[in-house]
Amino acid sequence: MARADIITEAHSILYGSHFGEKPAMRRCAASASVSVSGSVVTFSLLAGEGAKTRAGDVLAAYVPTDKAKCYTFLVISMSTDAVTAYNGWGGAPAISNGSTDLNSAILEQNPAVTLYELHRKAETVFAAHLWPDIFKWNTYTFTPNLATGQYALNAAVRDIVGAYQKIGGVVTPIPYRLERRLHTTLSATGVIGEFQWFDASACYISTREKLDEDDESHDAAVIAIAGLGTAALALGANMPERTLEPSNKDNQAEMQRADPAALLWRDFLTVRGEYARDLGEEYANRVSIEW
Fold first, then answer.
1. For an engineered disulfide with 153, which of 2, 137, 157, 256 has Cβ 3.0 to 4.6 Å away?
2. Contact yes or no for 192/150 (Cβ under 8 A)
3. Alpha-helix residue ranges (DSSP H) falling in 49-187
4. How far is Cα 177 from Cα 191, in angstroms, rounded to an integer?
């Protein structure tokens, strides 16, 4: 699953992948017996785990696949293996009374960055820092509606880069136009392609689409790039992209004194640019006929 791969990649960058480098892990009991009262939650750790946990610790659920289950707790007190803690610490989701989500769950103890934060930063990377440099090619095949000249497209479509019909055995480009952010009464996805079809022959179109962190078609390069960006943002990277341009000698000297977040962010911009060049070469070879 793509999201889990990205979160795992970012986690590995932050903590390393060798034994002993990751945050300590605590185990919940097979029946954690979650009980919630206001902002306070109690639950049970596996026998013996309570001796390794104390008031003031942060315990964060390790769930790479689902942000909604990345519960985070600030321990108020311990009684043998029973934890009393603040629920939903740091803005993370609050667990509900009687939930079984903590049964046999793995909790990271005092992580530098919780899994909940990694999920949020991964979403930011995809929302704001990949498009238009990195995108996904997609194709559609459909029978034209000659009455309307329109076809509803995926909401992620940002650009049509080719529309064709086979007329008399010849692949023939057809004019098109893309309409986005339409009212949902006009298009359930908010996106419509308009085409000047020749006849009712099948239509084939190619598109560029914005990537989503849950898209399972991500290749290893996209996972690595997104993981870098996620780790950098999680550490607090907030430098404008222009100040990190590698061609600026002053910037390079400054980067040598920069913190790890800025260094990771520079690496993210570098590999994003390299990958984008490969995509751009293919995109530049496309021929579009618009009206």
1. 157
2. yes
3. 115-124
4. 11
pTM over 0.70: yes
CB contact set of 233 (below 8 Å; sequence gap of 6+): 121, 124, 125, 261, 265
Angle at CA 156, nearest 5°, toward 234 and 167?
A: 150
Establish whether the linkage from the previous residue to 132 is cis, with ω within 30° of 0.
yes
Assign 280 to helix, strand or coil.
helix
Q: Across-strand partners of 206?
A: 139, 162
Angle separating helix axes 249-256 and 260-284, nearest 10 degrees: 140
Which tokens is 30 given? 């097979």
Residue 111, classified by CB atoms within 10 Å of its CB into exposed (0-12), middle (13-18) or buried (19+), is buried
Cα(99)–Cα(101) distance, integer angstroms = 6
Tell me the backbone φ, ψ of residue 66, rounded to 5 degrees: -150, 110
How is residue 190 written in tokens? 């908010």
CA 64 to chain centre: 11
Spell out the per-residue pLDDT of the chain, length 291, in tens.
689 999 999 999 999 866 566 799 999 999 999 999 999 999 999 999 999 999 999 999 999 999 999 999 999 999 999 999 999 999 999 999 999 999 999 999 999 999 999 999 999 999 999 999 999 999 999 999 999 999 999 999 999 999 999 999 999 999 999 999 999 999 999 999 999 999 999 999 999 999 999 988 899 999 999 999 999 999 998 755 555 455 554 555 555 455 889 899 999 999 999 999 888 776 655 555 666
How far apart are the C-alpha atoms of 246 and 146, rounded to whole Å? Answer: 52
